Amino acid sequence: MAIPIAACLAVACGSGESPLDSDSYAAVNTSVGESSNSSAQSPAVASDAAYRGPSVGAAKGFAALAETSVSALNQSPVTGNLGVSGAPVRSITGFDDVPVLKFGTDSSAPNSLRTILTQREVDALVDNIDIRACDADYTELAELGTDRITIRPGVTCFNTSNADLRLNGLVTLDAGGDPNAFFVIRSNSALTVADSTRVVLANGAQPCAVFWHVAGQASIGKGVELLGTVIAGTSITMQSGSTLIGRALARTGGVILDGTTITLPVYDTVVSNLTCTHLQ
């Protein structure tokens, strides 16, 4: 069962202002400061006022990195490297007409360990994300009948024991004019992004400062406009017409693209959605 994130509201932990706003309101039984899954957050929770968000480290140059395979079922333009950390280069398929660099366990030196070491940095990135306290911890969700939400900077947690995290409609990431703002959207479940979902930036938000981390798989529907680095515990699939300004990082499974586009966020470009000054 999937619970629509865009149709949900809960009470934020810690501060009086929730990182997530909605056009409607409903009563929700939410335990402030508690998670429905204790394993989703380390017992040693980091709280650092100077913390400016995660960094992708060696994964910066990868548009897609997986353990088992990276496959394009239909023409899928990507800007950035492709890699597999647990398989040879031949496990990267369908990109013969795309001018990209491919790396695997059989790459020639000095790249023979590149994807393995990069995947370890992805693991370290996940550890860095998971140890952070939730600025908003949504332990229970309620439908509101709306598909327009705004997420504020910080760590927003959606932990549930019986449903997938479902993203749909229009999602705005609002930095509130803070050039150092970062967004971590974290869930202990799988992620399903409905067809035609749009994620947009507002007031200085940058795609390189956005991180989606889910414990299960990430399934991205048709015609989706997604921003940020997507880190899935298992696999990532993107359906036709979808675009991702960010990265697709699958920790234990594969990445499947079906007529989709992935563009790395960069530090300077004429396309405003790609402009990034945040540490990557």
Question: Helix content range of the residues, please?
Answer: under 10%
Q: How would you characterize the largest beta sheet?
A: 11 strands, parallel
Q: What number is the mean pLDDT? A: 79
Gyration radius, rounded: 18 Å
- Total strands: the figure is 23
Write down the secondary-structure element order.
EEEEEEEEHEEEEEEEEEEEEEEE
The CA-CA distance between the termini, in Å, is: 34 Å
How much β-strand is present in the residues?
Answer: 25-35%
Oligomer: single chain
How many individual helices?
1
Number of domains: 1
The dominant shape is globular
SS class? mainly beta
Low-confidence stretches: 5-18, 20-44, 142-146
SSE topology:
Blueprint: E1 2-4, E2 20-22, E3 62-66, E4 70-74, E5 78-79, E6 81-84, E7 92-93, E8 102-103, H1 114-130, E9 136-138, E10 148-151, E11 154-158, E12 164-167, E13 170-174, E14 183-187, E15 191-193, E16 198-202, E17 210-214, E18 218-220, E19 225-232, E20 236-238, E21 243-250, E22 255-258, E23 261-263
Parallel strand pairs: 1-12, 3-6, 3-21, 4-7, 4-22, 5-23, 6-8, 9-11, 10-13, 11-14, 12-15, 13-16, 14-17, 15-18, 17-19, 18-20, 19-21, 20-22, 21-23
Antiparallel strand pairs: 2-10
Quick recap of the structure?
This protein has one domain.
